[in-house]
Write a structure and sequence with these properties.
The chain is built from 19 helices and two strands. It has about 425 residues and is mostly helical.
Length: about 425
């Protein structure tokens, strides 16, 4: 029987090469006849130690080609260097609104002169007008399927309670918020005003759709609450906020201002969409672009308000602002708990398992939409008050943080729902 020999050929170390070696299989010169007979057997092994190219400790920017057999060693750095701009761009696109709002605050603190100049030209009012024109253009009521519209109609009791929760019940928490003491007091007053607002214009519907909820119901509650909110908010602010801080708020004048600032552009955007097929096609084909433009318009508000109030904001201790941020997050948690606790009770009172409140897709839409509050309407209200309830920048700043917090919290909530649903489906299959 032929024996397989393994010979190790040792070479003296060469200057500049490492002491590590790697094994290379060489063709065997032993007994070719045996190899031809037993072609299925593994060939005898002859190994030789070859030097392995080293990885230089220093990384130099050089155009010299890499020598040796280590071509794959450069693939990972090249892939990372070519992919990070795309990853950064994707992150910026996915988080455009938070980045725009934070950038507005930072710019206002860093260089208030530009924000004050923009304020002299009423840029914040024009930006609010633009936000609601875009909202009228991109409200996707025309994209709802007939079965989605039917599902929303069947869930009308859920929608009715959602509107009551958004516009009547949750604003009552403003009385509790005003009992808190914090300096500056505008932080507390701003969060109290925020609790009186209607639901968000887009994030509630988007998160409901992502969670597999009744998106048509979410859209209906969003549109109706924002339209009715323009009529109800002035009186809520006057009775709940103005009376709480001892300030008279002219509800009728505020109502007229909100109609001109919010309702008119919303109607103009919707009419433009209905009358022009080209406008509708452009809005449908450029939703992401329009959403970015709307986010830029919204970022003008904290930029201008922070620029105007910079001298006062610099006097605020960071710990105080952190407390206000936590208060905004707790406000959203309380609203979520309030609606979540009422859903099972309403389900039991309206037919048990056959109740529209018992359907998971209706409950998720109600919980998400009825627990969120919108920042653009709050900003418009503060603009129209003209400092009656305090410095505008101090009122708006904690609400910017609260707006971002509620989106982050609800995104985590939706991800938990999706993970549990996936685990349940996997358990059923198993």
């Amino acid at each position: 029987m032929a024996r397989a020999f393994i010979s190790l050929t040792l070479h003296p170390p060469i200057i500049g090469t490492p002491s590590f070696r790697r094994l290379h299989q060489l063709p065997s010169p032993l007994n070719p006849q045996l190899s031809a007979v037993n072609s299925n057997a593994a060939p005898p092994l002859l190994w030789k130690l070859r030097p392995v190219p080293t990885i230089r400790r220093g990384i130099r920017a050089s155009a010299e080609p890499h020598q040796g057999n280590g071509d794959g060693e450069n693939r990972l750095p090249q892939a990372l260097s070519s992919n990070w701009p795309k990853s950064l761009a994707k992150f910026a696109a996915d988080n455009f609104l938070p980045l725009a709002l934070v950038s507005g605050v930072v710019l206002g603190l860093a260089n208030p002169s530009l924000g004050c100049l923009a304020d002299t030209y009423y840029l914040s009012k024009f930006s609010t007008f633009g936000i609601f024109i875009i909202s009228g253009l991109v409200f996707h009521g025309l994209t709802l399927r007939s079965d989605e519209i039917g599902a929303a109609a069947e869930a009308w009791p859920v929608g009715l309670f959602g509107l009551a929760s958004i516009l009547l019940f949750t604003p009552l928490f403003s009385k509790v918020i005003l009992l808190l003491k914090l300096q500056p007091q505008e932080f507390v007053t701003g969060l109290a005003i925020f609790s009186c607002m209607p639901t968000t214009l887009s994030s509630g519907v988007a998160l409901t759709r992502l969670a597999g909820g009744n998106s048509a119901l979410a859209l209906a509650m969003t549109v109706i609450s924002n339209l009715l909110g323009i009529l109800i908010i002035p009186f809520s602010i006057s009775k709940l906020i103005g009376a709480g801080v001892g300030v008279s708020v002219p509800a009728e004048r505020l109502l007229r201002s909100l109609v001109l600032t919010l309702l008119v552009p919303l109607i103009l955007g919707k009419v433009a969409r209905e009358l022009s097929r080209g406008v509708a096609n452009f809005a449908d084909g450029n939703r992401k672009l329009l959403a970015m433009i709307s986010a830029i318009f919204l970022s003008f508000v904290p930029w201008i308000q922070v620029s105007r109030s910079r001298s006062l904001l610099l006097l605020v201790k960071p710990s105080v602002f952190l407390v206000a941020v936590v208060m905004g997050a707790l406000l959203h948690a309380v609203l979520l708990a309030f609606n979540a606790l009422l859903i099972p009770s309403l389900s039991a009172l309206s037919g048990g398992s056959k109740s529209p409140f018992a359907k998971k897709e209706n409950a998720s839409a109600l919980l998400l939409v009825a627990s969120q509050k919108t920042l653009p309407v709050m900003v418009a209200v503060v603009e129209q008050l003209g400092g009656a309830l305090g410095e505008s920048g101090l009122l708006v700043l904690p609400c910017v943080a609260a707006h971002l917090n509620q989106i982050i919290i609800d995104s985590f909530l939706v991800s938990i729902w999706k993970r549990r649903e996936t685990e349940f489906e996997n358990a059923k299959v198993a």
